[in-house]
Amino acid sequence: MTTAAVIVAAGRGTRAGGEIAKQWQTVAGRRVADWTLDAFRQITEIEHIVVVLHPDDLGRMPDVPCVIGGATRCSSVLAGLQALSGLGVTKVLIHDVARPCISAKLIQQTIDTLDHAQAAAPALVVTDALWRGENDYVTGTQDRAHLYRAQTPQGFDYKAILKAHQAHDGTAADDVEVARAAGIKVAILPGSDDNLKITQASDFARAEKILGSKMDIRLGNGFDVHRFGAGDHVTLCGISVPFDRGLQGHSDADVGMHAVTDAIYGALAQGDIGQHFPPSDPQWKGAASDIFLRHAVDLAAEHGFQIANVDCTLICEQPKIGPHTAQMKDAMAHIIGITANRVSIKATTSERLGFTGREEGIAALATATLIKP
Ligand SMILES: Nc1ccn([C@@H]2O[C@H](COP(=O)(O)OP(=O)(O)OP(=O)(O)O)[C@@H](O)[C@H]2O)c(=O)n1
Ligand SMILES: C[C@](O)(CO)[C@H](O)COP(=O)(O)O
């Protein structure tokens, strides 16, 4: 089974207004499209994601495969489905970019339902009375029995929905309509009130409230040790400190930067430096450690996190760290891309106890706080 997702984002968002289409506007600190994409990226079972864009928007989502959509939602969906051909996709979810509050739970339920149904989609039972109206007056009522409000993601057997779209005349509100026209039976899943589609300008405030309460705060710790060897300086927290010995290691042995890097990986639950840059790999021999830190910082950004602060403690008798901390903070802040007042570098001795007390090496401890707004 190979699962994929098509996120349709080629609309112009005319009803929502604004200077740019609604999917590029910001809600709770991030673009609507980024929230939506992130929700799908969280699902490990989804192996391929394709975003369908308007030709004017190419380049707005550089980190994900994109294709150009068409003038109607249906033609955009077809472009996305065709882009997945040849990848062995069996299940596909089709989702409006304009539904950024979609939960991982609802995405997973849709995928799981496809184990025993050819198609499945979430919907809300209509609970309000329904009227017909004209010129601001009620002209009639409508029986609400058996009525649902359709949502996305709508999930399908890939080959069946591709064939259905290829055979369709192109007019349909959603993919369930296309599927049903092709004789595909669609299972209804309980939708969610939070899974609103941003359609009118007022919907941004509702989405802001829902996404604003989803703030994700992570804490990670890192610890590293390097032993002293021959040399005339040590590299610590991005700067060179003159000393009568050097630190030994596969890279430049910047023990402080390694601890901070591991703290960031830790907060992301993404392993450690050794996993990303194996010491057995000769290309990292003598490498400047900012390569590792920049990788962790980029990984945090890819996962939608900002680094709020880092705090590093160097443990050694010698060299004296105090005179260098301001320069170290600047160097670390520059690499991480935050201001120096969010970087703390401090030092302690171990009261002449243990390997640091015997001046055999330097240890470093670090903490990093990551925030997804
Ligand atoms: N030619 C189109 C039209 C719509 N869509 C996408 O289909 C979804 C349908 O939502 P809708 O609210 O209709 O989006 P827009 O068409 O952008 O909105 P509007 O009708 O207000 O212009 C959106 O994710 C939209 O980007 C698309 O990919 N291609
Ligand atoms: C697919 C859909 O989101 C289901 O509710 C909806 O039909 C698409 O948006 P539109 O407002 O109907 O264009």
Describe the structure.
The protein has 373 residues and is α/β, with parallel strands linked by helices. The chain folds into 2 domains: 3-213, Spore Coat Polysaccharide Biosynthesis Protein SpsA, Chain A; 216-372, 2-Layer Sandwich (60s Ribosomal Protein L30, Chain: A), CATH 3.30.1330. 28% of the residues lie in helices and 29% in strands. The chain has 11 helices and 19 strands. The protein has helices at residues 32-41, 73-83, 104-113, 158-167, 175-181, 203-212, 255-268, 273-276, 290-302, 325-336, 354-357; strands at 3-9, 26-27, 30-31, 46-53, 66-68, 91-96, 119-125, 130-134, 137-142, 148-150, 154-157, 187-190, 216-229, 233-236, 239-242, 246-247, 306-315, 343-348, 361-372. Strands 1, 4, 5, 6, 7, 10, 11 and 12 form an 8-stranded mixed beta sheet that branches. Strands 16-13-19-17-18 form a 5-stranded mixed beta sheet. Strands 2-3 form a two-stranded antiparallel sheet. Helix 10 (325-336) links the parallel strand 17 (306-315) and strand 18 (343-348). Helix 7 (255-268) runs parallel beside helix 9. The mean pLDDT is 96. Bound molecules: cytidine-5'-triphosphate and ligand LQXTBERG. Cytidine-5'-triphosphate (CTP) binds next to strand 1 and helix 2.
